[in-house]
Amino acid sequence: MTALGATYNSVNYIVIEDSRNIATPAAIDVKNIIFTVSGYGLDSDTTLSSPTMSVSTTLNPNSTAAENVLFFVNPGNDVHYVRYVTSLLPNNLLLGADGYNTTTPVNHKCRALSGYGGHLHLLGPTENPSDATRYEFRNRDRWSDLTLADTWGLTGTTAGRNDLADTGGEILNAVHYDGNEYYMKSDSIIRVDHLAGETAIYGFTTVYQGDGLVAPKLVWVTNRGIIFVGLQNIWLFTGSGSPARLGDPVVDAFFDDLESGSGAYHKRAHFVFMEETNLLLAFVRESGSYPNVAWVLDVEQLTWTYWDFTTQTGGISAGCSYNRLESNNLVRGTMLGFSDGRIHPLDTSSENDYVANSTTTAIQAYWDSKEFGLPDGRWPELTNWTGIYLEAKGDNVTVQYSLDGGSWTTVSALTLSSTWTSYNLVINKTGKLIKVRFLDNTASSTFEVRRFALQHTVGGIQS
């Protein structure tokens, strides 16, 4: 089962349980994309919490020379053990938990990880402070000794802990932004300042309350700020003040997908950032057991699209962007890992289609407007909708309308040109509310609409 995507030593990794079903794309060195973990109970639920730190960090994980180390936690089957990858050791259990546990279990368990200030941080660790029972401290941050990831005792070291009880929410993830670490709780955001003092190594400040992270893997740092999915909306947080609302155009439909199954699949929802296109993909489950649709945010334009992967076998449980040299040219791309163990590149060279079994199939792309009506007091007035005006360019676009929540009716299928062109389409239908759809399901075809208007008559006066 594909589990997680991460970057370490400028190499992109996707962790999987079993490599036997991997389909290796042509011209991609699979060794630079994947390492495998077998026999450790790794499964698709690994997306339950942060699999890696926001950045890899230079630490000593096993009493050897310090080096740049990638840590991850496998929450599958509620195991939560912390593991690490070095340049020589592909997969190892991190030891040293006997430094804070009374019954000397040596393996660490936590919900998420952070690497900050030269310390490894266990977020939401499981500990047994006084007896053989292990307890989960979901708002605790416990960190290692400086540069020593296997040293956790509090005597004579810089290891420590802090319980973030300012709010009652649990820590779900951590991200690094603008020189600071931010802990994403289920009800707030905490800024962590590295003080590096003798008595205080870190400072913790609650910088936002009002909403929190709804699922551990639905947070990402962009050049605009921290984008995260909360309980109420999709937000952009820039380090202070209230976050900006990004999800208003799609929030109802997005949360319909996210909350399908009564929220039981939050643990598998995740972001994938496509560096080559500057698109942020929020993979959520519409049906089945794994994410199979993506709500796509253009990080520069702050516009939304919707990608449907429901025709694929298996859901998408991980992904990461990659860079490689090909004939002295830098090639950028994105790999997606499927729940059945397959790993494939996401092809962005084709337009509005996908290729499966050497067959090119069109993807139906469409945009729906909101409903429009003319108010007559509290209620919309019966209106004669006479036409639709639009300005468009591209290959093809089909224009449809829906009256009063009814089925879609096609007005015209337009063949477009490469320059902006105006079109006046006749409707002459009566209703109280109308909405418009622009769609295209032609292979290797795109369209753009920059402006449209609805024409109507009320009382014999056209407007």
Describe the structure.
- This protein has 463 residues and is mainly β.
- It has a domain at 365-462: Jelly Rolls.
- Helices cover 2% and strands 48% of the residues.
How do the strands and helices of this protein lay out in sequence?
Blueprint: E1 2-8, E2 11-16, E3 34-36, E4 57-59, E5 67-74, E6 81-85, E7 92-93, E8 112-116, E9 119-123, E10 126-127, E11 135-136, E12 140-143, E13 160-163, E14 171-177, E15 180-185, E16 188-194, E17 202-209, E18 219-221, E19 226-229, E20 234-237, E21 244-245, H1 251-258, E22 270-274, E23 279-284, E24 293-298, E25 303-308, E26 316-326, E27 329-338, E28 343-345, E29 353-356, E30 359-362, E31 365-368, E32 374-376, E33 379-381, E34 383-394, E35 396-403, E36 409-415, E37 421-431, E38 434-440, E39 447-458, E40 461-462
Parallel strand pairs: 2-3
Antiparallel strand pairs: 1-2, 4-5, 5-6, 6-7, 8-9, 9-12, 10-11, 12-13, 14-15, 15-16, 16-17, 18-19, 19-20, 20-21, 22-23, 23-24, 24-25, 26-27, 27-28, 29-30, 31-38, 32-33, 34-37, 34-39, 35-36, 35-38, 39-40
